[in-house]
Design goal:
nine-stranded mixed sheet, 14 helices, about 475 residues, globular, alpha/beta, 13 strands, Alkaline Phosphatase, subunit A, four-stranded antiparallel sheet
Length: about 475
């Protein structure tokens, strides 16, 4: 049996450009940056979807949203799906999830209401779970009520918490406790440590509030013509939030981004604590560690606030940094294209575990190990269907379904039953400001990208028997 342990550290709404190792000069993330210096950093890693539940399901099944069936937030992962922790557990691993899993809804989404604040054990292949995500978990609240009763009301509001009682610290504590219990057992383990919070306005502990001056944080470039050539729903989303008072003005936006940066610093500290534990226990060299995110975030890029239903790079490009036994101990930086569905087969291959039927991702282990000639994908497939967030902006979610393909130099977004689309030349327009979809001079390029999209969709058919749900 393989003795390779696995720690999967997943953040929520974490833009790749909000880490020092990805080029951010203001935000200090020393623990993650040090990790990147002896790991493999992927500059072009992409989520398959723009929001939490679909892409988390893809991470843990290695399958696309239109295949595993979690096509939007609020749709539970079918129990028929085979998950990464399940496969590892069947191969002798102890498995634990601490923090955000989000395989089932944690809040009301339109007509889909199923608030689960503590799951049964085992839970989708996790033998041990300590949930605390969109809704606070029962275990965390019991911890607060027993250890910090004076903070009971503050905890339930997620505000004004000291480090020792903060939700993110508790989540990391549970992961550390699991790792400590397993380290001497002779049994390999898989630990998922994940947070709900990196969606502004964030609520870091009191010792991390105010680390960044709102006047110093960068705000996205906005162009007056930005919305003119995009599908109309972009403008409708922007105006819908304005009408409802939910779109931040610039001073508010700066405060929110500053809180996002402050929380990222606290998150970096938590990652450092978990890494230090692996080193203290003498199992650092025997453990695969992956730092990644479920999706990025729009911080008013293209006049849009927060994530979904948008597929521009700020939302779908995620940080991804690997460290694994046997790889070189100098920084590896690659600009090869990879997808979230590639995580499961990569971990299984590096653990010496057979990849189950139905997994659609490809192992990126050769890229992680910096093997000569290793290549990523020629394109990535992205999708978004009927985002419940549209309702908050005054739009009918059923009217917007998107599927897209991105290469190194081009991106195409197709809209089902919609007379509009998006086409961007990323080599000359990396900010995706100039939509070329309707430009006569780019008809041939649009046709090539549409053909590529059809090829990707055809190749992404479910290799398993037909499921009992519909896309």
């Amino acid at each position: 049996m393989s003795k390779t342990n696995v720690v999967l550290f997943i953040t929520d709404g974490h833009r790749a450009d909000t880490l020092g190792c990805y080029g951010n000069e203001l935000l200090q993330t020393p623990h993650i940056d040090a990790f990147a210096q002896e790991g493999a950093l992927f500059q072009r890693a992409f989520g398959t979807h723009s929001v939490c539940m679909p892409n988390r399901a893809s991470i843990f099944t290695g399958r696309y949203p239109h295949i595993h069936g979690v096509w939007a937030n609020g749709v539970a992962l079918p129990k028929t799906e085979v998950t990464l922790p399940q496969v590892l557990a069947e191969n002798g691993y102890a498995t634990c999830a601490s923090g955000k899993v989000h395989f089932e809804p944690q809040q009301a989404y339109a007509d889909r209401l199923c608030p689960i604040i503590e799951g049964p054990e085992p839970y989708y292949g996790f033998q041990e779970v300590h949930l605390s995500e969109n809704l606070l978990g029962k275990k965390y609240l019991r911890f607060i009520d027993e250890q910090f009763p004076e903070l009971s009301q503050q905890a339930r509001k997620r505000e004004g918490m000291p480090e020792e009682a903060h939700e993110l610290q508790w989540i990391t504590d549970q992961a550390i406790n699991f790792v400590e219990r397993q380290a001497g057992s002779g049994r390999p383990f898989f630990c998922s440590c994940s947070f709900h919070e990196l969606t502004p306005p964030c609520r870091p502990p009191d010792t991390f509030i105010g680390l960044h001056d709102p006047a110093d944080v960068p705000v996205p470039e906005l162009r007056e013509s930005d919305l003119d050539k995009r599908p109309p729903f972009y403008r409708q989303c922007y105006e819908g939030y304005l009408e409802r008072g939910r779109h931040p003005d610039e001073p508010t936006l700066r405060r929110y981004i500053a809180s996002y940066y402050d929380q990222a610093c606290f998150l970096d500290k938590q990652f450092g604590r978990l890494v230090a534990t692996l080193k203290r226990l003498g199992i650092w060299e025997d453990t695969i560690v992956l730092f990644t995110a479920d999706h990025g975030l729009s911080l008013n890029d293209h006049y849009q606030w927060r994530h979904g239903p948008f597929l521009f790079d700020q939302v779908i490009n995620v940080p991804m940094i690997w460290r694994a036994p046997g790889m070189q101990r100098t920084a590896v930086v690659t600009d090869e294209l990879v997808e979230s569905v590639d995580i499961m087969p990569t971990i299984l291959e590096m653990c010496g575990v057979t990849i189950p039927p139905g997994v659609q991702g490809r192992s990126t282990a050769p890229l992680v190990r910096a093997e000569a000639g290793a290549r990523g994908r020629d394109s990535v497939l992205v999708q978004e269907r009927q985002a419940p967030d549209l309702a908050a902006r005054g739009l009918d979610p059923a009217t917007i379904t998107q599927v897209g393909v991105r290469t190194r130099d081009w991106k195409l977004i197709h809209y089902q039953d919609y007379p509009h689309g998006e086409l961007y030349d990323l080599s000359s327009d990396p900010g995706e400001f100039d939509n070329l979809w309707a430009e006569p001079d780019y008809r041939e390029q649009r046709s090539e990208m549409e053909s590529l999209l059809m090829q990707r969709l055809a190749a992404a058919r479910d290799p398993l028997p037909v499921r009992d749900y519909e896309w």
